[in-house]
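Exercise (ungraded).
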Amino acid sequence: MHGPVTSTRIGQPVPRKEDMRLITGRGRYTDDLNVEGQAYAVMVRSPHAHAIIRAIDVRGALAVPGVVVVLTGADFIADQMKPIPNKTFSLHPAERPLVNSDGTPAFNVPDYPMPADKTRFVGEAIAMVIAESINAAKDGADRLQVEYEPLPSVTFTVDAAAAEAPRVRDEHSSNICIDAQVGDAEATEEGFRKAAHVVKVKTWIPRVAGSPMEPRAAIGEFNPQTGQYTIHTCSGSTLRLRRDLSLVLDVPEPQVRLVIRDVGGNFGTRGAIFAEQPLVAWAARRIGRPVKWTSERGELLLSDYQGRDLAVEAELALDANGTFLAMRGSNVGNLGSHTGNFSMVQKGVEIMSSIYRMPAAHFRVRAVLSHTAPTRPYRSSGRPEVIYVLERLIDLAARKTGIDRAELRLRNLVSLSELPYENPFGMVYDSGDYIGVMKRTLELADWKGFPARKKEARTRGKYRGIGVANYVDTASGIPREKARVTVYPDGSAEVVIGTISNGQGHETSFAQLVNEWLGVPFDKVRLVTGDTNIVDVGGGAHSGRGMRLGSIVIWGASNRVIDKAKQVVGLLLQKNPGDVAFDDGAFSVSGEPVMRLAEVAEAMAIRTDLPEEFRGTLCAECDETVNVAGFPYGCHACEVEIDPDLGLVEIVRHTAVDDVGRAVNPLIIHGQTAGGIAQGVGQALLEHAFYDASTGQMLAGSFMDYAMPRADILPSFITDISEVPSTTHPLGIRPAGEGGITPALGVIINAVVDALSEFGVTHMEMPATPERIWRAIHGKQQRSRIVPDAAEQEISLL
Amino acid sequence: MHDFVYHRPQDLTSAANLISGNPEAKLLAGGMSLLPSLKLRLAQYSDLVDLKSVATLQGINRDGDALVIGATTRHAQVAASDDVKQAIPALTVLAGGIGDPLVRNRGTIGGSIANADPAADYPSAVLGLGATVITNRREISGDSFFTGLFETALKGGEIITAVRFPVPLLSGYMKLPHPASRFALTGVFVAQTRSGVRVAVTGAGSSVFRAAAAEKALTADFSPAALDDITVDPDGLTSDIHASAEYRAHAIIVLAKRAVASARPQ
Amino acid sequence: MPFVSMTVNGVRQEAEVEARTLLVQYLREHLRLTGTHVGCDTSQCGACTVHVDGVGIKSCTALAVEYDGATVTTIEGLQHGNELHPMQRAFHEEHGLQCGFCTPGMIMSAIDMVRRNGYDLDEPTIRKQLDGNICRCTGYHNIVRAIQAGANAMRPR
């Protein structure tokens, strides 16, 4: 997979610096921190999907020994606290926000961290009990009397879009927040008119729970003398979270200090502000002492921001040679009960045609509210869903036209010479060797050898299938980032930046960048993130922006450090700065080494004969706004073997070739791919945040029912890296973080359907559980994925 | 969880005295069933009586044509025992598949069967081998021990001391793991015992049960093919978000066949 | 309140704790050994794995009082001075961790796996025996490699 480490520069699989504290139990996760005098909070959560909160009687709770106070949503509003701001769409210049077809603005209302009027999903926090110990707080919570008036609820996406569905928001005439059209309706219709073949899929990509291993937590402090809040928490963003917290707490930003240290995974579940973060801060001010809150897994499954949940009807039109002519359809995304973030449906539809040549496309896109936990972007936001849809359509088209599935794809992939390529939704793919990468995947997956393996499996009574899927990711995210690079007289360097690592290894990969560009030894590069007292600009880590933007601003800052240092060298040695060369940490003039970088830093620190602007620390900043997006792409193949008697699926081989433009640390990249694949397997075969449509209850409320992938159901993966430099990044880098999962749903389901094709199976919904497979084999009706004992209804979006 | 008084008696009589007459007292062995329910505040007790220091409850012994396993013997010990492997290899397989290795380091047979989780593995062995549950007061036939959902024939103050498993001629255990909990989505224990064929099913109903039609067919011919035309009625079987009663009914036969196939000496 | 005395990472510790105190709570809150983590509430994820009297257990499903008199090793107690335990080193070299939250439990569980199965662990064995430890970041690929390498490195020379 990767060779031995020969240096600590860019491109080397350097083992990580952050490991040392993590493998010795010295990580600093939020719950590890304790603050003098802290009280403990326990949240009381709604047992109803939709109900009016008639009354909350706190007397019983307050009578419990150790309980300090009980706070409710009404208290929050009475204290002039503000609601949580919503993001709505990605406003990245390379993307397009969705616009209602009728010209009205997208429906968007802010939500309070705890509602005062109504509860809108099972698990929503409606009160906060604060006590001297967690047990006392739980005892208090047990004695809280809440009078609810249950109301009808709707949880399933398609049902929520119906005019007669129970409304989540009284202020709006329906649950539909956005109803937009994208693409070219006329050209698309023309494409379908000319078509020799049309294939169709109706599918629902169900709701999942991101489930990072660290339960989310927050500690709030308030200093009444300075009026400053301090919040310790886990998050994927530093400055954006600080800004949102200051808006909710209604104070100027400088009055909120946010500290994020180690974070035990994110994947989007904690990319945005979550209710308990402002609540603990506010509570700390109320009671005059710090307040600590840590969730339990059951709470997480119910109330973390959840992911996916998209209902799609789509069609693909082809000519007689199998050339794609057009695609069309309807996507309905489920926002849950908050209008927090619509970008998932946007980011999905904008690459609906993936990296295939698609002359025309037209889609209706809707986002609906429902009485379920709010959804937010979850690893590769919106894209695994749509890639799955197109890859399913292609396999169906292969069956219909009789053209080999791999051949059909190769024929339609955008070729090198056609790039940059504008897809029918206006996204411009920069560069890439899509065909080359697909061919490499087929080779690594031994696509040609499959028929023999399939035959051998049959002798053991097993059915093998293979799938292949191409993908593209839009790497955008918040466009602005800043880094400050400082070199010290002791030869060390510090990088202060607004991104934050939740496991992606930035301490290591950023150190490699500085080692390469400034020659500072790898072990002497420190990364400073996560504390708003130190970091003042930046957007966090999401959408692959950590390395993509981080590299640009660190490079920019490093270059400015070198330029400044050259000036100093010139002054000290009476040389023209233009004659000073820099390489690997040292300056030379006419080929003769003259000074090392650390010596320049020392000179600036101690020499009094330098002009004022060159005295002090050797540091420089770079603050960039990157308005282009990156487009990582790749191809994966999956081979499965199915036990037909029980419907058990074994993944026997999973192959991935992902193009990262230029690999900074292949070790980390392969690791990210493996993790993404596993999450894809999870959704394809196991996971479902199952909302019972008849009761509104989420029935997978613990790991006893929410099936997490374990090591025993996964194989070792074959992962390969392709490096075709991105033409929209100065260093050629494409982000790697989401490539593992983006094609996973499509490739795994295609493999399963292929395995079952001789039983006449043409499609499989997710999760493809053993029962679902067994039923498909025997032509039995499938069980509903929204009502436990009912039969599956065909989803109709029209 | 709610607090309690913790006791660590050194002998069985003291343990029995601690729980006798006190319905708020609960026995603690490996804690792998009890502690999770206390943590989730699904139950609360005034006293926990830890049996781990009662030496007489430990141990695996061959007693004539029976294998006697002490109530506080850990799953890991049963799975690693040569005596068990020689006498009842299906029990080695069963014990080695309970939970995960760390759970097996603590969980005990007594705790498991006293809890009577409808998806636990051991109840299928107790029923499938026609075992006897020995308590500090009496002996209870395995056929009468499991009475309902998390219910057993144990009376207040009664302590399981051991389980006596008659050594069968042949036995096999096949489990379809629940994808999330890793309990038995369905598990089938088959045995050709000295007093006839038994097929015990766990995970498919509110309590472990015997599949009479399968037993009849295997009595005539103890081979997988004998079950070709046997079906189990889904009516009364468990249906949940992971599997329907219909699927479980189907799985019972598939697993029974595989259990029979595995019972054959290699 | 019951009095509990146990040797933790070589140091004798004594405290009065409520009987309901879980071993993991005792370690994290009383002894401030926060390397052992709580990741779930149903005893499945394994992030809380420690060694008690040489055997791996899930400390979230054990009471501190049960282990009065016992010898406990947590992730913090694996090193000898500055020298990492071979399993720790293997996790580092093989990139067997990303966010690190499941990692202490993985390492402790892996060491117990070696105790049960020896130094020559093959992939199927490792994958099967790791079903009590959940990771969300790595896809287990490098964890398996790390355990294989770590087990081999634990072989007495």
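Further reading is listed at the end of the chapter. For now, observe: The longest strand of chain C covers residues 3-8. Chain C has a mean pLDDT of 97.
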